[in-house]
Amino acid sequence: MAELIEGISHLDSLELQAIVADPANPVVVIDVRETEEYTEAHIAGLPLIPMGDIIDIVDRLDKSKEYVFVCRSGRRSFEVAKFFRANGFERVHNFKGGMLDWQEQGLEVAAGEDNIIETFSPEQLERKRS
């Protein structure tokens, strides 16, 4: 069950795994680490928008959608979630423990530059549907 910290729900690895495993799930999951971290290991299919860049596009995102943010340990993604909440997004979550927890749990990771967003368009955040 999601833990609430400073008004932000924190999902654990099992909760996030259930979201990313279901391509029909409309929750938008975004990795907010730096490019080097992402290319080394990331959750397959997740788009990368570094923390420093996501603040520039917040006004272009749909406030009616639900978002989960992922980073290395859960600290940067928590700050992004709080920023989104302060900007009128009601359904935001942090992935508690981040990629460190994901890998510690033995969950699958990918490497490479498969979904790095350099020129943003909202369609890039949609997961592939089966």
TrEMBL record:
It comes from the Bacteria. This is Rhodanese-like domain-containing protein. PROSITE patterns: RHODANESE_3 (PS50206). It comes from Paenibacillus contaminans. Residues 23-111 form the Rhodanese domain. It holds the Pfam family Rhodanese. SUPFAM superfamilies: Rhodanese/Cell cycle control phosphatase (SSF52821).
